[in-house]
Amino acid sequence: MNEVVRIGVIGAGAIARDVHIPNYLKLGNKVQIVAIADIVQEHATRLADQYHIPHVYTNYQDMLRDVPLDAVSVCTPNKFHAEATIAALKAGCHAICEKPPAMTVAEAEQMAEAATKAGKQLTYGLCYRYTSEVQALKRFIDGGELGTIYAARVHAIRRRGIPGWGVFTNKALQGGGPLIDIGVHMLDTALYLMGYPEPDTIFGVTYQKLGTKKGVGMLGDWDWDNFSVEDMARGMITFKNGASMMLETAFAANIEDHDDMSIALMRDNGGADVFPLKIYQEKYETLVDITPSFLPDVNKFEQQFSHFVDSCSSGNALDPMKSEGIKLQKIINGLYESAEKGVPIKL
To answer: Which of 53, 167, 176, 198 has the lowest tally of Cβ within 10 angstroms?
Structure first.
C-alpha cells in the first residue's frame, strides 16, 4: 500500500459531495482523491472541478482499469451497490459502500465473498456507531457493566421527513423507503451494541399512508405522484441467542417529535438509552441513572472515514462489517418479505 491512500469515487450525487469527499479531505496528506465516475458526465465534472479531482469517467470500469487506486467509495443508488463494490474489490481496491449493503441477501454475501477473496477491507456507510455516545456505551458493555442483552427497541421516525431530492422514494432503484435509509442506521447501531447476534425470526408490516398524498414537506417537496416505497415499517426480530428487538421507522408519521433517532437496550444488570446516552441500573438497593457529564464532540463521518483509511493503509485485521452486513441485509429483506406475505419469516 502506498503511504498516501489513492481514492476513487463511484457516483457523484449528494452523499459523495457532502459526506465522502469532504471527510476524505479532512484527512489531509493521508489521502488523495484521484478519480470520480458517474454515468452523468456533468455531475462528475462538477464535483471534479469543485474538489480538484484530476480524472473524470462516465464508466467506473474504465476508471478502475486506467487509474491506480487503493480504495473506492461507492455512492450509487442502492440497486448498483453490489455490482460497483464487487468490481472495485476485484480490481484490488478496498471499498466503503453506502448503506444499505445491497438489494438482496445474495448480493451482500457476494460482496463479502469478493472482499475475502481479494483480502481487502469492505465497510458500509453506517456512521452512528462512531458517535461518542455509542462508543462510550460500548465501553460499558465490553467491560461487563450491564450484563447480558435480552431486549432492544429501535426508533428512526420523522413526522414529515420524506426526502425531496434524489431517488429515495423510487423502489426500483432503492429497494425500499425509511427502513433502508434511516432505519438501517439505528438498526445497525443497536446490533453493534448487542454484539451483532444471528437473527432468527422476523415479523414485519409496512404502510404507505402519507407518502402518496400531497402534504407538508419538512425536507422539501417530494414526488408524491411517483412515491413507490413504504412510508413506515415496523417489525419484531428474535435472535438465536434469545434476545428480541422492536423496530419502528418512518419517513412520515403523525407524531409529536419532528425526528426521533433513538435506541433502548435492556440487559440483566442494567439498561441504556442512546441519543442521548443514559444508563439505568440498580446498585446497593437503589435505582440509579448514569448520565455522562462530558463526551468529546466528534464528527461521526470524520471518525468513520479516518477509521476506514487507517484500516486500508495499516494492514490491520479485516473489518467485521462485511459479515455484519449480511446479517443486516437478512433483517431488512426479512421484514419486507414478512410484510408482503403477512407471516413471520424464519431467517
So the answer is: 198
At 126, the amino acid letter reads L
The Cα 159–Cα 251 span in angstroms is: 7
Beta carbons within 8 Å of 182's beta carbon, 6+ residues apart: 156, 158, 161, 249, 251, 261
Which residue, chain included where needed, has cell 413526522? Answer: 159
Residue 339 gets the label, from left (phi > 0), alpha (psi -120 to 50) or beta, of: alpha
Query: Both ends of the chain: CA-CA distance in Å?
Result: 39
SS (H, E, C) 221-266: CCCHHHCCCCCEEEEEEEECCCCEEEEEEECECCCCCCEEEEEEEE
Same domain, 138 and 89: no
CA 170 to chain centre: 18
Q: Which residues pair with 50 in a beta bridge?
A: none
Are 66 and 172 within one domain? no
Nearest partner of 158 among 223, 205, 77, 220, judged by Cα: 220
Q: Please indicate, yes or no, whether residues 205 and 273 belong to a single structural domain of this protein.
A: yes
For the domain that residue 59 is a member of, what is the CATH number? 3.40.50.720
* Same domain, yes or no: 46 and 156: no
% of the chain exceeding 90 in pLDDT: 96
pLDDT digits (tens, 9 = 90+) for 173-186: 999 999 999 999 99
Residue-number span of the structural domain to which 259 is assigned: 129-298
Residue 120 sits in the same domain as residue 161: no
Res 2: pLDDT: 62
SS3 state of residue 140: helix
Tens of pLDDT, residues 257-287: 999 999 999 999 999 999 999 999 999 999 9
**Is 335 domain-assigned?**
no
CA distances in angstroms from 306 to 25, 39, 62, listed in the order given: 10, 28, 27
Count of domains observed in the chain = 2
**Spatial separation of the C-alpha atoms in residues 262 and 133, rounded to whole Å:** 11
CATH number assigned to the domain comprising residue 155: 3.30.360.10
Q: How far is it, in rounded angstroms, from Cα 170 to Cα 337?
A: 18
Q: At what angle do helices 105-118 and 81-90 cross, to 10 degrees?
A: 10
